[in-house]
TrEMBL record:
Keywords: Hydrolase, Membrane, Protease, Transmembrane, Transmembrane helix. Belongs to the peptidase S26 family. It is a single-pass type II membrane protein. InterPro entries: LexA/Signal_pep-like_sf (IPR036286), Pept_S26A_signal_pept_1 (IPR000223), Pept_S26A_signal_pept_1_CS (IPR019758), Pept_S26A_signal_pept_1_Ser-AS (IPR019756), Peptidase_S26 (IPR019533). The keyword Cell membrane does not apply. Pfam families: Peptidase_S26. The gene is lepB. GO terms for molecular function: serine-type endopeptidase activity; signal peptidase activity. This is Signal peptidase I.
Length: 205
């Protein structure tokens, strides 16, 4: 009798844990998901972890995965997380295996292909870099957020429909659209909404 009651209570707690985990996974897949910034490509806006420096802690951010649903598109100035594998259409499997609890089943490390970048151009915009200065639709951008003066140039292109042109804030140490080209909107995983750690750098974007 006593054992049966314990078993019933355990089953009850098991159901609660199962439904709680299910809700958490649903929220992380479709609504919000935490990320840790990797690398230095978004400095000084975000500090990232470094493979050879265990003492360097990356910024913790929350990404809204629902921001670009229902035909909403990324806008210039948005800070986003992208899937840099622009040759590979994203699907539900990608969303599922990127969840923190389920990523152990993924064949690629999350940090390898998910990049935090800033949207510089939207579809139809012309983007050109001359002597380290970025021009959108022939107008030079004022970019107070840059780590340092950018080196180099980039031939003018027109951003295709349903694509964005992204750059890191640390331009001289960033892999971005200068290397992979414009990014399809479907490869924009979500918009960075808040940095919640370190606590002295909490900020909303």
């Amino acid at each position: 009798m006593f054992q049966n009651r314990i078993l019933i209570e355990l089953l009850g707690w098991g159901k609660v844990l199962f439904f709680s985990l299910t809700i958490f996974i649903f929220i992380s897949i479709f609504l919000f998901q935490p990320y840790i910034v990797n690398g230095s490509s978004m400095e000084p806006t975000f500090v990232g972890t470094e493979p050879n420096n265990n003492e360097k802690t990356g910024d913790y951010i929350i990404v809204s995965k629902s921001s670009y649903k229902l035909n909403r598109k990324p806008k210039s100035g948005d800070i986003v997380v992208i899937d840099s594998r622009i040759y590979k259409p994203r699907n539900f499997k990608d969303e599922l295996l990127e969840h923190p609890f389920l990523s152990i089943f993924a064949t690629e490390s999350n940090g390898n292909y998910k990049w935090v970048k800033r949207v510089i151009g939207e579809e139809g915009d012309t983007i050109e870099i001359r002597d380290g200065k970025v021009f959108r639709n022939k107008l030079e951008l004022e970019e107070a957020y840059l780590q340092e003066e950018m080196l180099g140039s980039y031939e003018e292109i027109t951003v295709p429909d349903n694509h964005v042109f992204v750059l890191g804030d640390n331009r001289n140490h960033s892999g971005d659209s200068r290397a992979i080209g414009p990014v399809p909107n479907e490869n924009v995983i979500g918009k960075v909404m808040v940095r919640y750690y370190p606590f002295n750098k909490v900020n909303v974007y």
